Amino acid sequence: MHYIWEIKFGTVDKIKRIILIAIMTFSGVAALPQKYNPEVDSLIRLSSTAADTLCDDLCNTICWKLRNNYPEMAIQYAMKAIKYAESTNDNVQLVKGYSYIGVCHRNLGNYTDALEYYRLGLKKAQELKVADQEAYAYINLGNLYLYQEQYDEAEENLHSGLNLGKKLNDSLILSYCYLNLGRAYLGRNLYEQAEENLEHALEVRTRIHASAGDIAVCKKYLGDIYFARGEIDRAMLRYHECISNEKYLSDIDLQSEIFRKLSQLYYQRQEYDSSEYFGEKSLKLASDIGAKFRIRNAHEILARIHYAKDEFQEAADHYNQVILYNDSVFSEELTEKLFNIQYKAKTYEQEGKISSLERENDLLEENNRLQDRFIMMLAIFLALGVLMLVVLFIMNKKTKRLNRQLHSQHEEIKSKNIELHNRAEEIAQKHAELEQQNEYIDKQRLMLAQQQKQITDSISYAKRIQDALFPDLNELKSFFSDYFILYSPRDVVSGDFYWLHSDEERLIFVVADCTGHGVPGAFMSMLGICALHEITGIGAESNAANILERLRQMVKTLLHQEADKTSMPKDGMDITLAVLDRKERVLEYSGANLPLIYVRNGEEFQLKPNRNPIGVYIKEKPFESQRLTLLDGDMIYMFSDGYASQFGGEFNMKLKMGGFKDIILKNHDKPLQEQRDLLEKYFVEWKGNATQIDDITVIGLKV
Predict the structure, then answer these.
(1) Burial grade of 598 (CB within 10 A; 0-12, 13-18, 19 or more)
(2) How far is CA 580 from CA 225, 484, 589, in A?
(3) Segment 295-354, tens digit of pLDDT
């Protein structure tokens, strides 16, 4: 078949073709870029024409290659793989599809959706007896729990995966398990165990000739161990080894974290330009994949850098972004679905089909390839000849211009004095413009100060309203011998609140941590206080678990959270609640994500909460009550998570629950006011120059 654009091999046509190539050379015609990369584009074209029995494998392969740079598009191909696998009974590809979707959601920062798909993948692997995919499902679950700092759950899943890897004698599975166990121990500050497991992972991957990117991941987490120990030089060496293979490190989320760590290390050395360079790279990568936690962290280090460089406007801009992303992490409303699993056949054909016209054109190009190469060389020689003529023409014009300049040199010398005078006037004008700019900046600074005062006054008045809703804690002395309270809002008004209700038989006491902080958190706290008043009013509920159940239903009703749990806003609160029986001296406890700690005879104990918030949750479970008979001298501690979550110390890390318990146990036998003062003093020293990141409430009660 011949087309109207087909090139013949006659002499006239050859000359026309040479001229056409020369014109393209000078007009800068370039090849169009691929949509993703040549390998992925080739797989996409192949999947559009392959048999159903191959399409599930192809679509999963495409998903895996797109998971880091194009996670939303990768999800769509995994959903296609699941569809084909179900129709062809391909169990392996079916399980892979669910797991790959979970990985994509994890890269997007959608941890709840990732957890759901990981669990679906595990369930399918167990039902269909696909042992290696069952192991990978455990690894994925462990990895996700690591992101949420739930180390018990992470280690449990990773050990399950490790046992399967040993049975299967699968080195790749073993390397993933050792890697993530190392991360889990690192999160617990168990550096020796962490280093041992990471060295195992590095040894296995080196032995099986794993990719440079997989080996770089091991080195990154070894760098984190040195970072945590304060071995700055060793940490920087490992991080730089990782970014030297940056193009092989396909995990964008991990790359963003490496750049942030390098930015922090250079900041500690006061090398602010290098610190800013790596901070900007971290922010760009995190923004590319929409990882909100990484974006917030990058803005925070960049704000500190600009503040240290006296660039206050830039610092303020980054701090505003930190505030926005802090609230977004806890209370963002999902306004749309991230992907759509329904595809129309017509769209699918249009995206994947290669037209017959393109195939004919490809064949024609292959047949003419040798002659094209010869013609291209002729075109290049022609272009070089034209270029030489242009250069000679330009040189001739330049010679004539130099002759004219020699004749006008005398006049130019005379004009120098005039030019110098004009230059002096320009400098004077620039000076006046700078003065006007400084005056404008001063006015803007004054306007900002006035606006800040108005906002501060409004929030201060809101604090008076919130304080008026808090109870008088002297009522606690009707049951306890003494008490203390450490209450420190992050932003004047607080998302933490405490509340009590007392009658002749019982005393009900609550400490709660609402979603967010500042003004949004304060609104949630007032909602919680009003709901508790209604639930525990005269003749109303007094069972601890039932109170939390009714409170959860009221919050969901008031916030319209009764619809699809996966798409509703996750506003709510964590809470610890104690009902004290005055006659029997029994404490009945129920908690939503917040534990209760008590110290008896110098030993610390903990009543664990239900892992559910007060509000909508994807897998809601009934709240449970626990009873504790109180003895004289017992110390009861109720608190929000703000104290343990604070960053600080030498390496700017979280204090965590373990550090908080150590302080309590060390000082539990001291007078209660002294305990409060010691807690406050330690927090101030730990935080140092860092910003307080959350509201703080700690209440101690002595029986």
Answers:
(1) buried
(2) 45, 18, 9
(3) 999 999 999 999 999 998 998 899 888 888 876 654 443 333 333 323 233 333 333 433
Helix (H) or strand (E) holding 371: helix 369-407
Tokens representing residue 643 in the block: 């104290």
Q: How far apart are the first and last CA of the chain?
A: 97
What ranges do the domains of the chain cover? Answer: 38-259, 260-330, 369-406, 472-702
Residue 370 has pLDDT above 80, yes or no: no
Domains 38-259 and 472-702 share a fold: no
pLDDT more than 90, % of the chain: 47
- The residue behind tokens 């706290």 is 525
Alpha carbon distance 544, 617 (integer Å): 20
Token duo for residue 174? 């073993």
Q: Which amino acid, residue 73?
A: M
Least confident of 18-22, 50-54, 248-252, 316-320: 18-22
Q: Which fold has domain 260-330?
A: 1.25.40
User: pLDDT category, 27, cuts 50, 70, 90?
Assistant: very low
Read off the pLDDT band of 34 (50, 70, 90): very low
Closest of 441, 500, 424, 490 to residue 469, by C-alpha? 500
Q: Which two tokens stand for residue 370?
A: 């040798």
Question: What is the DSSP annotation of 352-365?
Answer: HPPPHHHHHHHHHH
Mean pLDDT for the chain? 82
Mean pLDDT of the 537-561 span: 89
Say whether pLDDT at 60 is over 80. Answer: yes
Determine the Cα–Cα distance for residues 406 and 383; give it in Å rounded to an integer: 35
Rounded (10°) angle between helices 38-47 and 52-66? 150
Q: What phi and psi values does residue 565 have, to the nearest 5 degrees? A: -65, -25
Q: How far is CA 530 from CA 138, 323, 501, in A?
A: 43, 28, 12
Supply the pLDDT for residue 252: 81
- Report yes or no: 579 and 508 within 8 Å, Cβ to Cβ: yes
**Single-letter amino acid code for the residue at 681:** K
Thinking of the domain 472-702, which architecture would CATH place it in? 4-Layer Sandwich (3.60)
Residue 657 contacts residue 642 (beta carbons within 8 Å): no
What's the token pair of residue 354? 């290669």
CATH of 38-259, one of 1.10.1040.10, 1.20.1250.20, 3.40.50.620, 1.25.40.10: 1.25.40.10
Q: How many helices (H) and strands (E) does the chain have?
A: 24, 13
CB neighbours of residue 541 within 10 Å: 18
* Planar angle of CA 507, 508, 511, nearest 5 degrees: 135
pLDDT of residue 334: 35
- Give CA torsion, residues 180, 186, 187, 193, to 10 deg: 80
37-41 own/partner pairs: CB under 8 Å, 24+ apart: 39/65, 40/65, 40/66
Q: Is the pLDDT of residue 502 over 80?
A: yes
How many Å apart are CA 538 and CA 531, to the nearest integer?
Answer: 14
